[in-house]
Amino acid sequence: MGKQSAAIAGFTEWAPERIPETPMFPMEAAAQLAAEVIADAGFEKDEVDGLLVGNPLMESPMFAPSALAEYLGVGCNFGEVVDLGGATGCGMVWRAAAAIEVGVCETALVLCPMPMPPMPPATQGGPGPMRMPAYLGGDVWGSPQALYDIPSGLAAATPSFAMAASRYMAHWGVAPETLAKVAVQQRHNASGNPKAIFRDKPITIEDVLASRIVADPLHLLEIVMPCFGGAALLVTSAERAARGPNRPVRVSGYGERITHRNLTWAPDMLDTPVRAAAERAFRMAGTHREAMDLASMYDCYTITILLTIEDAGFCPKGQGGAFIEEHDLRFDGGDWPLNTHGGQLGMGQAGTAGGLSHVVDVVQQIQGRAGERQLPKADLAYANGTGGMLAEQVALILEGA
């Protein structure tokens, strides 16, 4: 094996749901996702010898890989829990590819189960309340965020991304209408995705700017809707993938960069770690930005897209606004198709499965399985994940074999 010797052979992705009709435990959802993706790739379960899962796995906060291997009935040579927030999906893909390249395992499941679990029983009187895990806000005793950030109003993600947006707009002078265009065209792309929660629900720039301010300057329609769902990929050797029913999607380049946890500790609020991650990914793949047929970028907020376009090297620093204004990001006739599945702004953010949706978006296009939103040419693509407060960044170059 060697570099570029790993490929994605299959995928599965559930439609995001705001409130699912049938709750599921994460391990139960992982088993269903695993069965679906193994079937999609044309594999047998016994061929799987690698297992990667996104954090958290509610039923097994510790020993998650072994608990999941036991539940799935697979023997693994490689097990990994990845905890990179929105970058988890992309982070799992390159770890699986690297494990295959060095010969640690031959076929790996990448699982992002994000169902709504059943309500835990209360001590008395029926179902008890579900408490969000402390890691989401860092509000545990002794954490720097609990001591300094949360008392100042920087609780969870929205205020931090709003602060980055405010800083960017003040420094570079980008107009609110420019950021609104991102949300509008992502919603348009969702019109071609039967699984998108906002399918056939178009919006205008005026709609975005008229929606209420959640954290200045971010409007409600510039922010993802949290949902439940799930997604999975099967990563194997390019040779084995070629014997399957789908076009293999090579993992040709990848990079990761982590510099901080809280935005207040970012080395530069306007220069994100995706710069180093993308540079490494393009260098490894031996290709360049102009060669990309499409891009799928993490879009938890509109400002995230603008910063990623710049820092991934698709335009000079400070010109992200002009780039968005000058290009059409839509799948049908756009000159720079971005997030053809609608992004998370149009499809919905099913936790770590939302991050993996950007890889699935690219895989669907390269395999020619994107349905009504299929691009005329889709051979080479850029995908990335953003975790934390513009903190954890993973970049991937994917290409058809």
Question: Topology, please?
Answer:
Elements lengths: L5 E8 L12 H16 L8 E5 L9 H9 L5 E5 L5 H14 L5 E8 L29 H6 L8 H15 L3 H15 L14 H6 L2 E3 L2 E2 L9 E9 H4 L7 E10 L15 H12 L8 E3 L5 H10 L8 H7 L16 H5 L4 H15 L13 E8 L4 E9 L1
Parallel strand pairs: 2-3, 2-4, 9-10
Antiparallel strand pairs: 1-7, 1-8, 4-7, 5-6, 8-11, 10-11
Which outline best applies? globular
Strand order across the largest sheet: 3-2-4-7-1-8-11-10-9
Count of structural domains: 1
Following the backbone from N to C, one meets helices and strands in this order, namely EHEHEHEHHHHEEEHEHEHHHHEE
The N- to C-terminal Cα distance equals 16 Å
- For the record, the CATH architecture stands as 3-Layer(aba) Sandwich
Q: Find the CATH topology.
A: Peroxisomal Thiolase, Chain A, domain 1
Quote the beta fraction. Answer: 15-25%
Mean pLDDT metric: 93
The number of helices is 13
> What composes the largest sheet?
9 strands, mixed
Low-confidence stretches: 123-135
The CATH superfamily label reads Thiolase/Chalcone synthase
**Would you state the CATH class?**
Alpha Beta
Estimate the helix proportion, in percent: 25-40%
Describe the structure.
The chain is α/β, with parallel strands linked by helices and 401 residues long. It has a single domain, classed as Peroxisomal Thiolase, Chain A, domain 1 (3-Layer(aba) Sandwich). It contains 13 helices and eleven strands. Strands 3-2-4-7-1-8-11-10-9 form a nine-stranded mixed β-sheet, sandwiched between helices. A hairpin with a 4-residue loop joins strand 10 and strand 11. Helix 6 packs across helix 11. About 3% of the residues have low confidence.
